[in-house]
Design a protein that fits this description.
Length: 406
C-alpha cells in the first residue's frame, strides 16, 4: 500500500470538507441564501464565499506565482474581520447584497478549488500546511454556523418551513430535539486540587486552547444531564423572567427589551393553551420536556441557575470533569470570561487575528452541539460568544459547590 504524503492527506480532507459545505446548502433555494434576520447571522452564500476567500487570500495569492484572483472586489465582500487585508462590508450589512449571486459564488468556489487542487499536488512548506489545516478547521466552524444561521433564517419566516425534508444535507436532524437524557439526580465530582487544562495534543487545536497549564479547581459537582425544557418551563412558571433578583443588571436591561420571555425559537402552541412549540430544522415541533433546553443566552443561563440554587461551571471545572459526563449536544455556557491562557501569544502574521483579538467581553462555552461537524469537537475547544447571543445551540450544565450541597 502506498504511503500518502502530507499533501495528499490534506487534499483528501480538503475535498471532503469543501463538499460538505455545499451539501449543507443543497436543500436551500437561491432566495434562502440571502437573508440576514439577526445581526449575528450571516447569509449562507456569504459563508460559502468567505471560506473560499480564506484559501485564496492566505494561501493562493502568496503561494502560487501568477495566481489571478477570481474577482477584484470579492475581497471587500468576503473578508470577515481581518484588518490586515483592509476594509470590508460591515457584518450587519451582509444580507443587503443581492450580488454576487449564488451561482457566481459557486463559480468562485470552483475557481479556488481548482487552484487549491494544484497547490496540494505539490510540496508545501510546513507553514503552508498549517494554514491549509487552519482553513479546513475554519470552514468546519462555518458549517456549524451555516446550520444555526439557516435555522434563524427559516425560523423567522412566518411560514416556518422545514430545512431539509428530503434528507439532502446528510445531517441527522432528529438529534436537535432528541428527548433522551441521563437521570437528573446524577452528579460527578472533582476533589479540590490542581488540574491541567488546555490542548495536550496530538492533533490540531486552535491557538486559544494553548498553552496547557495548571490551575486550581475547588471541590465541585457537575450534573450528568443538561437542564431540560421541562426544568426551564418550571423556571418560567415560577416568574423567572420577572424576578430581578435572579438576573445580572445587564441581563435585566436586556430582558426589558424582549417582547417574548422564553428561549429563542419557542412559540405558544395554538392547539394547546399554555403549551409551547419549538421551531426546529424539521419545522415546528411540540416541545419535548426531557430534551436539553437550547437557544438561551448567558443571562438566561445564569438566572436559571440562580433560581435553581446552582451555578454555572468554570471552564476549568468543565474540562476537568468532562471525561466523566456525556457532552456534545449543546454548547454549554460557563461563568469564565474569554481571556488568554497564561503564556498565550498571538501569531505575528494574519492568522493572529483569528482568536486573540476577541479576548474581551465574551463568555466561554464548552462542548459541542449536534450541528458540530464530525471530528471537530474536543474537550479543550473554547467557543466564545457575547452574553446576549442565543442563536447558537447553547445550553446549561448545572454546577454546585460540594460544601453547599452537603
Amino acid at each position: 500500500m502506498a504511503i500518502l504524503t502530507p499533501e495528499a492527506i490534506l487534499l483528501q480532507r480538503y475535498r471532503a470538507v469543501r463538499s460538505r459545505s455545499l451539501k449543507l446548502c443543497a436543500p436551500l433555494t437561491a432566495e434562502d441564501h440571502v437573508p440576514q434576520p439577526l445581526p449575528e447571522v450571516s447569509p449562507p452564500k456569504w459563508h460559502l464565499g468567505h471560506t473560499s476567500w480564506y484559501f485564496e487570500t492566505l494561501l493562493l495569492e502568496p503561494s502560487v506565482p501568477g495566481y489571478r484572483v477570481h474577482h477584484p472586489r470579492y475581497a471587500f465582500v468576503f473578508n470577515s474581520y481581518y484588518e490586515t487585508f483592509g476594509p470590508r462590508v460591515a457584518r450587519t450589512q451582509r444580507g443587503h447584497m443581492s450580488r454576487p449571486t449564488v451561482a457566481e459564488v459557486l463559480a468562485y468556489r470552483a475557481h479556488v478549488d481548482a487552484a487549491m487542487e494544484q497547490l496540494l499536488q505539490g510540496v508545501l512548506e510546513p507553514r503552508q500546511r498549517e494554514l491549509v489545516e487552519l482553513g479546513l478547521q475554519h470552514e468546519q466552524q462555518h458549517q456549524e454556523l451555516l446550520l444555526t444561521d439557516i435555522k434563524a433564517i427559516l425560523g423567522t419566516n412566518p411560514l416556518l418551513p422545514a430545512y431539509d425534508p428530503d434528507g439532502r444535507s446528510g445531517v441527522d436532524l432528529s438529534a436537535e430535539h432528541d428527548g433522551t437524557c441521563p437521570p437528573l439526580d446524577e452528579w460527578v465530582q472533582a476533589q479540590a486540587g490542581t488540574v491541567e487544562i488546555g490542548h495536550a495534543g496530538p492533533g490540531f487545536a486552535f491557538d486559544n486552547e494553548s498553552p496547557r497549564h495548571t490551575t486550581y479547581v475547588g471541590a465541585v459537582q457537575l450534573r450528568q444531564a443538561l437542564v431540560t425544557n421541562a426544568e426551564y418551563l418550571a423556571f418560567m412558571a415560577d416568574g423567572g423572567y420577572t424576578r430581578h433578583e435572579l438576573w445580572h443588571a445587564e441581563g435585566w436591561d436586556w430582558l426589558a427589551a424582549q417582547t417574548q420571555r422564553a428561549p429563542l425559537h419557542w412559540q405558544p402552541d395554538p392547539a394547546q393553551p399554555g403549551g409551547w412549540l419549538h421551531y426546529t430544522l424539521q419545522g415546528p415541533q411540540t416541545l419535548e420536556g426531557t430534551a436539553p433546553v437550547t437557544h438561551v443566552n448567558y443571562y438566561e443561563a445564569f438566572a436559571f441557575c440562580q433560581w435553581a440554587g446552582w451555578r454555572l461551571p468554570t471552564e476549568a471545572e468543565w474540562e476537568a470533569l468532562a471525561p466523566r459526563f456525556g457532552w456534545g449536544r449543546r454548547w454549554e455556557w460557563t461563568q469564565s470570561g474569554y481571556a488568554p491562557y497564561p503564556g498565550f501569544r498571538r501569531s505575528t502574521d494574519a492568522s493572529g487575528e483569528y482568536n486573540g483579538k476577541f479576548m474581551v467581553n465574551q463568555q466561554v462555552l464548552r462542548g459541542a452541539s449536534f450541528a458540530t461537524p464530525p471530528g471537530h469537537a474536543r474537550m479543550s475547544y473554547r467557543n466564545f460568544f457575547h452574553a446576549p447571543e442565543r442563536w447558537q445551540y447553547t445550553g446549561i450544565r448545572p454546577a454546585r459547590d460540594v460544601a453547599a450541597s452537603s
